[in-house]
Amino acid sequence: MEDVEETKTGKEEERKKHKTKKRFWVLIDLSILFFFFSLLLYRPMRYSRPEPIETNEVSTYWTHELMPEIYNGAQRQVPFEIAIKQEEINEAVASSGWPKFSDGFSFFAPEVFFERGRIILIGTARLKEVEFIITVAGRPVINENGLLNLHITKAKVGAVPVTIISKIVARKMYTKQLSEIEIDTDDWSVKILGSLLNDEPFEPIFDAEDKKVRIIKVDIGKGELRIGFEPVSEPGG
Q: Does the structure show a pLDDT above 50 at 52?
């Protein structure tokens, strides 16, 4: 009888140990899950989540400052530079009409940061009732052939790196767009999308009314972006 009682006691202790061990691993799993979601919901301290500027007009920064500066530089037909301040670009971005919608997502409250050698965009994405902070860092590069590429160097959801995944998804989106709709490959917005989504460099030449200019340099410092241009001669000119 004593042996039977000892066996029962041993089995009971084993069950208790098993339950305790199971509770321990469930607690660990929940802690990891909570930590992961905390990382997903992380919000960078510098992100101010700016309010959109309600307007039906194009930002006066584009129309009254930036474009006239480029036009005047092009008319002189010599190399020139323009400087874009972080505050100026954010004011223009805030008045660009937000939120933007795509496939059940909405994106709003974008904020741009200029750091040494890179541009960072931080904004809020909403899926149903859950909001995530998206951070994308890019580096404009002009290669040896004079082609410009807007190379994405980092992408994060909250504090979770998703650079590789985001590039795969971006390429699929770009390929799908190309197959479904007719695209004007000379359109600058299409060139920029191809560069951002598919790492496709493009010739950075555009019209400044009756003149053409080429981007030859992009320098990014703390709070400021400087772009260098040179005139493009017309054939036979």
A: yes
